[in-house]
Amino acid sequence: MVETRKPRTALTIYDVARHAGLSIASVSRVLNGSGNPRSETREKVMLAVRELSYIPDGAARALSNGLKEVVGVVFRRGDDLGFEDEAESPLFDEVVTRGIEASAQRTSFDVLISMIGTGDATARLSGLAGKTDGLILHDRLISGAALARLAAQLPVVILVGKPSPETMSVRADNQAGMRALVRHLVADHGYRSIGYISGHADSPDSLARAAALEIEARDLGARAITGPRWTGDYSARGGARVIATLLGEHHKLPRAIVCANDQTAIGVMHALDQQGIRVPGQVAVTGFDDVAVARHLHPTLTTVRQPIREMGVIAFDLLHAAITGAPVAQRDVVLPVELVIRESCGCRGPRRR
After folding, report:
1. What is the average pLDDT score of the chain?
2. Is the pTM of this model over 0.90?
3. How far apart are CA 9 and CA 5, in angstroms?
4. Protein fold of 70-172+308-336
């Protein structure tokens, strides 16, 4: 005769509290990451969790506090780019995987990632708002008015974009980084003409970098070259396309080309090499971001380093605080950048400023 076993009763937070000799409220604060429990309390709770092999019921916990425990992360998809192009971007990996996702795991939140084009942004974001507790938006997707309406529904953090009164934001000091880069190209190398290959035409970061470049170049007596023909889309493909168009129309290239990001610079350097134009001997090329591959290119890429991973961490922390009702001390966080000098500008070895 086969003996049947009763299924094991699922452990609850009450069992953990009883095992740890603590109140339900104390255990709840530790497991939910709320309040400021003492270190000895936290240690007792986590020891009880390990000894009981207790697995918190995320669905029940979320139901009790009215949260889905999901945040949405939205990246802008270029008009001629697929998901694969963006997903392979080093910036995407650094921001999402190493920054936002790592922080979310510490709080038991899940991350819902979406790639959205500008054509269907409003409807898609409205749908995501119903599935998440808050959103992190990368770059400009919707108008200011639409963004205000979205932020009225749930907390929103703008990542590397233009801050607004209704949202929180995390961005790098674009102006300081671009000014330092232009000073190096003009004052240290003596380049008198500098072209700027932008990101998306309406990208706040790209516009801020372009404005800083134009002002600094003018103040130093150099010529800044911008305009519709110099519009990229933050991709290597977009950078190569700009160079192909300029050369195809027989435009004379400036002595230095500053790119809105490193991905664009990679495409520019490839396109110039295909045409037999030497970098930096004939045209200097620089980027912005300092992705890992920048130091392995030939020549190595002079760029401006953004604290990309830290941006993701802070963006999630701001959003989580707003979702859980914790105080948010600073709604617009501007992080410092660093000029990283390598070979593509005409220097012989790596330096930092």
Report:
1. 86
2. no
3. 12
4. Rossmann fold (3.40.50)
